[in-house]
Design brief:
The chain has about 300 residues and is an alpha/beta fold. Helix content is about 35%, strand content about 25%. Strand 11 (about 245-250), helix 10 (about 250-265) and strand 12 form a beta-alpha-beta unit. Keywords: ATP-binding, Nucleotide-binding, Transport.
Length: about 300
């Protein structure tokens, strides 16, 4: 294993995650999920030895983390935090090239192979048109991609990313996640990234770490999802006391959308209604009534006329 946590308790002065025993291998892509405040960033900082574990041990590349210098850890792990300080007067190319200097003195000039690698990263991130832009000229999304590029240029065995897709649209999220998975599979790198957007991210992660109730549950992504109903079935928030929900027979996404639509638009008792999703249309029924509809607009019209 490349990363190992043995009887590890993570936190500041009080524990956030207790008794962790898990490993990750080179070639793994691991998604770290959990609600805000459960300790995701604290766990990442503990793996980087920026925060000491409260109990237990962490091993990196077979060596106890406590025995490694900051430089040795930096050579093994490239990291991208969700909020990073923006260097003054740097272009996109400058920032991504900076990742190479973990291996060289600051005054060293990059060789042709290094410069070519930086060019490839810029192209893979769809940043070619911004390569000479000042970082302060970039959108939040392109700035985040540039910081990810710096981590890729570092060419370390492991890359850790804290909420890497926060400022990205769907297209750029997929670009980043595909690139990370390709790196893990083709270049035998270990990728650990945290995200709230698990419904997209799970498609790219072979492993999952799920933090809840002060525990870290680790395993194959699909095993973790199937064991934890709260991940697959998000909570339907009841915001209006005058709204009485109907029975809804539908997959989780369609159910979530219908519940949201009904609650926002109907302050009435719908408990006698039944809604069934048939793949392309809804069947609405109640005592002595049944009708099909294929849009929320039609559905709204039907409910209004049944008052």
């Amino acid at each position: 294993m490349f990363l190992k946590l043995k009887n590890t308790t993570i936190g500041h002065q009080t524990p956030l995650i207790k008794g962790v025993n898990t490993t990750l291998e080179l070639g793994d892509t691991c998604l770290l999920v959990g609600n805000n405040g459960v300790g995701k960033t604290t766990l990442i900082k503990s793996i980087l030895n920026q925060i000491s574990a409260l109990e237990g041990e962490l091993f990196l590349g077979g060596k106890n983390l406590k025995t490694l210098s900051n430089k040795e850890i930096a050579e093994q792990i490239a990291v991208v935090f969700s909020k990073s300080q923006i260097p003054a007067n740097y272009t996109v190319t400058d920032l991504i090239s900076l990742g190479k200097y973990i291996h060289y003195p600051y005054y060293f000039e990059l060789n042709d192979a290094d410069k070519k690698h930086v060019e490839v990263i810029i192209e893979n991130l769809n940043l070619m048109q911004y390569r000479n832009f000042s970082l302060h000229q970039l959108s939040d999304g392109n700035l985040q991609k540039a910081f990810i590029g710096r981590a890729l240029a570092q060419n370390s065995p492991m890359i850790i990313l804290d909420e890497p897709t926060t400022h990205l649209d769907e297209e750029n999220k997929i670009i980043i996640l595909k690139l990370l998975r390709k790196l893990a599979k083709n270049q035998n790198k270990l990728i650990l990234f945290s995200s709230h957007d698990w419904r997209l991210s799970k498609e790219f992660a072979s492993k999952m770490w799920f933090i809840h109730n002060e525990k870290l549950e680790a395993g194959i992504t699909e095993d973790i999802l199937l064991k934890n109903d709260e991940l697959l079935n998000p909570q339907l928030f009841h915001l209006d006391e005058e709204f009485s929900p109907p029975y809804i027979d539908a997959p989780s996404l369609e159910k979530e959308m219908l519940y949201s639509f009904l609650q926002k638009n109907f302050r009435k008792n719908l408990s006698s209604y039944k809604f069934e999703w048939k793949g392309t249309f809804w069947v609405i029924s109640k005592p002595n009534f049944q009708q099909n509809c294929d849009s929320f607009a039609d559905l709204s019209h039907i409910i209004e006329n049944l008052r």
